[in-house]
Request: fold
Amino acid sequence: MISTVWRVLTNQIDPTEAQDDAALREACKQARQGFDELARQAVARTRDDYDRRARYVRVLAESTTGGFGSPIDRTTGQVDTSADWTDRWAARCPTDPDAQVVRARSLIARAWEVRGSGWASTVRPEQWAEFHRLLHLAEQVNDLATRLAPADPTPWVNRLQMQIGYSAPRDDVEQTWRQLTYRDPWHLGGHVLKLTYHCHKWSGSHDEMFGFARSVVAAAPVGSPLHVLPVRAAAEWALWEEERVSPDRPADEIAERWRQDSAMQAELDSALSRWFHQPAARHGAWLDDANFLAYGLARTGRDADAAPVFAAIGKYMTLVPWNWWGDARADINFVRARRRARRAT
Reply:
């Protein structure tokens, strides 16, 4: 019975990072098997679409983790940084900016896999040491990518990701931010990372995080996915409140506070009207943003509003933020919320 239910559930969802992008899915599959031709072609096609480029670089880089990545040297305890397909591609093509930026992001992904996703207090000293070693190497590779493609904002996205990881001084982060937005003022991935930097669990506070998100939305054009940024901020707020401030209280209590907050409700309305319901073409991370919007609507009981968002998402669930909702698994949270939304219409 349990296995039957699980088969039905897995047919209803697909948490694969490549989502509905058939070319990216196949490139990841081939790359994990050691064949990088499709990956190289896929990244090359994104040179004029920086949001999609950042997504392709991230997803391909993360194909080197989760059991598909580099072995760990039993003597040193260090990750092998020469044997992965991204390492071999970069070594074979030392002047190719695509190869270097993907390898840099791969090293970042491998560093985070070593560190783990838990709070900083749960990370062991040897994990921190290897985390920082891999980030230092990633920084060197990323600097090369920056020199090879000076107009590309993607290495600056990588740099911002690293600076969050090792809690860089604020002046350094702001300098990176200026360089990134000089190259692409509305870069989605860059703005999401800057929001992360400002959130309470990293280097900021709730006020700082919401202030950043709301300042961006005030200037963003209609149709821009940046209108989802305050919804992401609200999800970060709820996560912090549930896990750090009130871990013994039910998740529904945080959801009720979210539902009663007029500013956060207005931002859900704005994300629907100024982004989701606009006839703009889908950007590279469209499904990521749609999942955050559906999550915010579902958590605050706006099931009827969530229904068309879930319909557009289909089966392409993202683990974050659905694994931020109480103690249940992400897939259970997603399917339950989608079921309620369907019943509300």
About this structure: The mean pLDDT is 92. The first helix runs from residue 2 to 12. Residues 323 and 330 are 4 Å apart (CA to CA). The chain is about 65% helix and 0% strand.
